[in-house]
Design brief:
heterodimer; A: mainly alpha; 14 helices; B: mainly alpha; about 0% strand; rod-shaped
């Protein structure tokens, strides 16, 4: 639990440094961002250590076994838990944003931020004491810190260059009208958010949903399936590229290339699809989910731009 | 503001977990 929390802390620090570097300090961004970052840390550690397990226990024990919802929950346990967790996080994020907009006095923001940070530090300290019973390895902390500082610097420079490039792009005539009306910073943020959603989270969701239909889980088919699949991690890469290309074709309105992308994917596995009905069903479910999520992301992008 | 918060959440929750 401690190492997971530490990874989350590093992630939040990394992104907050980059986003802070991209922003100019207009209408008190620094203070608001401080409150939001400390609130995210506080919410994570509170949820993972105090709310998550009681919540899961509540759902498993309180739904009576005759109820149809119980069957649904037992069958899709991991997905339901994932969705509920993300909904709670989303709620917390909305609450944080409301908190930031409501209070005008900067000292209130400072107070809230410090309170969140204090509770977070104390609970993280208590967790480390409970789990390791020895003092924290400072060597590893320094290593992580230096890696993330270098990484965030590189990312920040790249994003700044992109931002300047977008400013130049707005001067040229571009086929998409949305590019002209928005400020470059908003465009960069929206594009980044949609791209980030499209990669690893979507992979995890598709894997969770379609794992019920995975033919490799069946022991009789295991040896054959392992023989036929190629590199490890190639499936995730194919999925990422497919979603990226489909998003681009939606964005520029050329729907015919979607057909080409999907048929290339089917060609690559044609032997398995033709011979193994289980695999073809699994393949179709995965691909359809992928296209569905890509379309949802495209709609989100249009709404954001 | 809210998109920035969502980005921070997505990156640290999905990309930084081992």
């Amino acid at each position: 639990a401690v190492s997971q929390s530490l990874h989350f802390v590093w992630g939040v620090l990394f992104t907050s440094v980059i986003l802070y570097g991209l922003n100019d300090d207009s209408d008190g961004f620094t203070l608001k961002w401080l409150v939001i970052v400390s609130g995210l840390l506080f919410g994570y550690i509170l949820f993972e250590n105090k709310i998550k397990h009681p919540l899961n226990f509540f759902f498993t024990s309180n739904l009576s076994s005759e109820h149809s919802l119980h069957m649904f929950y037992v069958k899709n346990r991991s997905i339901v838990q994932f969705v509920i967790q993300q909904m709670l996080y989303l709620l917390w994020i909305f609450i944080l944003n409301e908190l930031v907009t409501v209070s005008d006095d900067p000292w209130i923001l400072v107070g809230i931020g410090l309170l969140f940070l204090l509770i977070f530090m104390v609970s993280l300290y208590a967790l480390t004491r409970k789990e390791s019973r020895s003092h924290y390895p400072w060597n590893r902390l320094l290593k992580h810190a230096s890696t993330y500082i270098v990484l965030s610097a590189v990312t920040l420079i790249l994003l700044q260059i992109l931002l300047q490039g977008l400013e130049l792009l707005q001067l040229a005539t571009f086929p998409v009208g949305a590019f002209v009306t928005q400020s470059p910073y908003r465009m960069l943020i929206a594009l980044n958010f949609v791209l980030l959603l499209l990669m690893k989270p979507t992979n995890q969701v598709i894997r969770a949903v379609s794992s019920k239909y995975d033919p490799k889980k069946d022991t009789a088919l295991t040896s054959q399936a392992e023989q036929d699949s190629g590199f490890k991690g190639a499936g995730a890469m194919i999925g990422n590229l497919e979603r990226l290309l489909i998003l681009l074709s939606f964005f520029f309105g050329s729907l015919l290339s979607v057909v080409a992308i999907l048929s290339i994917k089917a060609f690559a596995r044609y032997k398995l699809i033709a011979e193994d009905p289980y695999f073809s069903e699994y393949f179709v479910i995965g691909t359809m989910l992928s296209v569905l999520i890509t379309f949802a992301c495209y709609a989100l992008l249009v709404l954001l731009l | 503001m809210i998109i920035e918060t969502l980005i921070a959440h997505v990156v640290s929750y999905f990309y930084f977990q081992p």
